[in-house]
Amino acid sequence: MTARAAQRATETGVRKAAGALRSQLIIQFLGEAVICVALAMALAAALTEVLLPQVNSVLKQKIAFNYLGDPALLGALLVATVGLGFNSRAYLLSSYLHIDRPRS
Fold this sequence. Notes:
Radius of gyration: 19 Å
Order of helices and strands: HHHH
Mean pLDDT: 78
Distance between the termini: 14 Å
Number of helices: 4
Helix content: over 70%
Shape: elongated
Number of strands: 0
């Protein structure tokens, strides 16, 4: 278990001991995942815009991306990434009991 996972397990245990429901924890973890993925997508788009002219000159081709051409595609990509990458982690973290982790 990594230090970050241990910290999250402790946080989950404290929240459950304080009366949080499993569904509330799942919503919190999935919400955090959506924010992280959305920020990563924005950073990737910005880096693509900055580096694409250099890539085009090296490849001697014209590559272009139209991000806003299909917003449904961006939404689907966001949902798929969160669904596949973070869904199981949210359910796993929310299933921890506050007495499962040894005290340190």
